[in-house]
């Protein structure tokens, strides 16, 4: 139970309190339940979408959904996205160690530059347009997408922690990155697969065969994307940080929505 509460504490603004002492081992093990925190956000997004559709014009609903998701985690991942892209924009001097230290220092700067602001703008815009497009399909497709979007992004963070290394010798990110092993990523993956089945069970419908093919294709594509992002951040920063993990969450959510749209256009 402590690890579940820690997962909510790290990923949401839900005011949970963890009793007793918290060790680095407890913190690291909480990654197993990151997808569970995603379930909370997914349910919240679905409820907001349903209520908004009753009250407001359809154009407003995706905006309110995205606002809810941002507020539910305090904008933590968007902040990481902005810091990451600001750091990436640092021009290379040809010396990797010098470039790495400069980029990491830019990442720690509390101010947001033009590149970081642009990254936030485009990610939110692309998510808004994607959700607006998906809303034109069946209600099951729309609400299951809202439900699964934060789940898949939390899972990709765990996968990235498993394959990545820490760019810094200290910090919260270092605890996750140094202690996330095969056991943690395996349990997290199993939980995510079980969560993926929930929309089908509660909908009371049998999905077309191609929909069941979509899930393994999606997980495989997200896994490959994680490996590519980890390799890219290794090249730029010498590893991962808490900010790059936030960026991975935002980028994989966007990629997930793109995959849903592509799949729907190909098979529906």
Notes on the protein architecture:
The structure is a single chain. With 268 residues, the chain is mainly α. The chain has one domain (2-267). It contains twelve helices and no strands. It has helices at 2-11, 24-29, 34-55, 61-72, 76-88, 96-108, 114-134, 139-163, 172-179, 182-203, 209-237, 242-267. Helix 3 (34-55) packs antiparallel against helix 4 (61-72) and helix 3 packs antiparallel against helix 8. The model has no long low-confidence stretch (mean pLDDT 90).
What would a concise description of this structure say?
By secondary structure, this protein is mainly α. The protein is built from twelve helices and no strands.
Number of helical elements: 12
Number of strands: 0
* Structural class by sheet pairing and helices: mainly alpha
- Mean of the pLDDT scores? 90
Low-confidence stretches: none
Q: How widely separated are the two ends?
A: 41 Å
- Biggest sheet, in brief? none
Structurally, the number of domains stands at: 1
Q: How many whole angstroms does the radius of gyration measure?
A: 18 Å
Helix content: over 70%
Q: How would the global form be characterised?
A: globular
Secondary-structure element sequence? HHHHHHHHHHHH
Percent in strands: under 5%
């Amino acid at each position: 139970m402590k690890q579940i509460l820690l997962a909510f504490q790290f990923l949401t603004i839900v005011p949970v309190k963890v009793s007793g002492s918290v060790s680095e081992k407890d913190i690291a093990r909480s990654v197993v339940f990151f997808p569970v925190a995603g379930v909370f956000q997914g349910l919240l997004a679905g409820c907001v979408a349903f209520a908004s559709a009753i009250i407001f014009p359809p154009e407003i609903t995706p905006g309110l959904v995205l606002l809810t998701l941002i507020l539910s985690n305090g904008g933590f991942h968007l902040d990481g996205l902005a810091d990451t892209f600001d750091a990436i924009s640092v021009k290379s001097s040809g010396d990797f160690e010098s470039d790495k230290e400069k980029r990491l220092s830019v990442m720690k700067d509390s101010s947001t530059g033009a590149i970081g602001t642009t990254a936030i703008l485009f990610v939110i815009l692309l998510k808004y347009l994607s959700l607006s497009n998906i809303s034109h399909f069946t209600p099951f497709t729309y609400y299951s997408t809202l439900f699964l979007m934060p789940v898949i992004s939390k899972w990709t963070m765990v996968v990235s922690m498993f394959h990545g290394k820490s760019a810094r010798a200290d910090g919260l990110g270092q605890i996750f990155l140094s202690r996330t092993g095969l056991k943690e990523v395996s349990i997290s993956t199993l939980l995510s697969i079980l969560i993926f089945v929930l929309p089908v069970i509660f909908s009371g419908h049998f999905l077309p065969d191609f929909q069941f093919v979509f899930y393994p294709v999606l997980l495989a594509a997200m896994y490959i994307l994680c490996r590519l992002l980890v390799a890219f951040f290794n090249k730029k920063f010498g590893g991962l940080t808490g900010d790059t993990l936030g960026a991975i969450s935002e980028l994989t959510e966007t990629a997930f929505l793109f995959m849903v749209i592509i799949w729907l256009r190909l098979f529906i």
